[in-house]
Amino acid sequence: MAAQAVLRSSARARLLSGAFCAQRGGPALWQHHQNQRAFSNGKILVEMDEATGVAVMKMKSPPVNSLNLDFLTEFSISLEKLEIDRSCRGLILTSAVSKIFSAGLDITEMSGKSNEHYAAFWRAVQEMWLKLYGSNMVTIAAINGSSPAGGCLMALCCDYRIMADNPKFAIGLNETQLGIVAPFWFKDTMINTIGNRATELSLQLGQMYPAPEALKFGLVDKLVPEDKVQSAAAAAMSQWLSVPDHARQLTKSMMRKPAIDRLVKQREADINNFVSFISKDSIQKSLQIYMDRLKQKK
Ligand SMILES: CCCCC/C=C\CCCC/C=C/C(=O)SCCNC(=O)CCNC(=O)[C@H](O)C(C)(C)COP(=O)(O)OP(=O)(O)OC[C@H]1O[C@@H](n2cnc3c(N)ncnc32)[C@H](O)[C@@H]1OP(=O)(O)O
């Protein structure tokens, strides 16, 4: 895909230079065990089944898998590593943290930091989206917990979503509830999944949907009991992998390329927009109030 080509160069350069690995105290090399390969960069564990060509990526950044700059960098590099591995055809994205898929963007990365930090953070968020939404692999989200905002975006980037059938787990783009705004590419991703009107309702209200409602709304494709999420994802994956790769990939590209091209064309403007928005005093105040509320609910 065009966007993939643009993106691959920077992440691959970092991957090959080993800059990221050195920073983490050593290269994230594959460990082999029978038909399994695995690597971990700290916040992400990847296990690959060589017999099926399916990798399972587990987010393991307790307490809530929030997407901070380190996490996003590890995520993009891990994804790139799988993308360039020709033996890997499918990716199941899930969480190793009990009851949480991902709490979305780390709010502390958007509060009280320099404009340079905000810009680097937002570039990393964009990169995560460009890589996951534009992946050539079959991507299935095994949503085994709550998934607000950026966590929901990650799930929406996948080709298919299976969620644990537990009404305590909720998913949605709740940005307006924080007093912030989902950018156009979050909105486009949701429109491409549930349509324009449902997205407008959902985004304006900052709605979080408990699993059964998320299914009705089309935000997820299937609900299964909590202990069956991984096996259901594996079963769905084998169905998806029965389709010839080239035909499926071209179809995926046809569906997603307009949205991807849109961000690629205005990446720098989108970063500048984010920095000027997030650094406003009124927005900082809203985020502070939201964080205080989160801590008080305990
Ligand atoms: C006009 C154009 C504008 C263009 C762009 C401009 C704007 C930018 C848009 C930015 C888009 C943003 C996307 C996002 O993802 S924002 C993040 C949204 N996330 C949330 O609202 C999630 C909040 N968290 C929760 O609802 C819950 O924590 C939970 C995930 C359901 C888990 O609940 P529970 O198991 O009860 O855990 P706790 O609430 O006790 O949380 C544990 C500790 O984790 C901290 N926490 C939680 N979420 C986050 C987070 N997202 N970031 C940072 N930290 C988080 C929480 O405070 C607890 O910390 P503590 O133990 O120190 O108290």
Notes on the structure:
51% of the residues lie in helices and 17% in strands. With 298 residues, it is α/β, with parallel strands linked by helices. It has one domain: 2-enoyl-CoA Hydratase, Chain A, domain 1, CATH 3.90.226.10. The strands form two sheets. An eight-stranded mixed beta sheet has the order 1-2-3-4-5-7-9-12, with helices on both faces. Strands 6-8-10-11 form a four-stranded mixed beta sheet. The chain is globular, with a radius of gyration of 18 Å. The N terminus is likely disordered. Bound molecules: ligand LIBGGCMN.
Instruction: Give the names of the bound compounds.
Output: ligand LIBGGCMN
Strand content: 15-25%
What CATH architecture do you see? Alpha-Beta Complex
Shape: globular
Oligomer: single chain
CATH topology: 2-enoyl-CoA Hydratase, Chain A, domain 1
Query: What is the CATH C level class, in words?
Result: Alpha Beta
Tell me the number of structural domains.
1
Please, how many helices?
12
For the sheet with most strands, the description reads: 8 strands, mixed
Counting DSSP E segments of at least 2 residues, the number of strands comes to: 12
Uncertain spans: 1-25
Question: CATH superfamily assignment?
Answer: 2-enoyl-CoA Hydratase, Chain A, domain 1
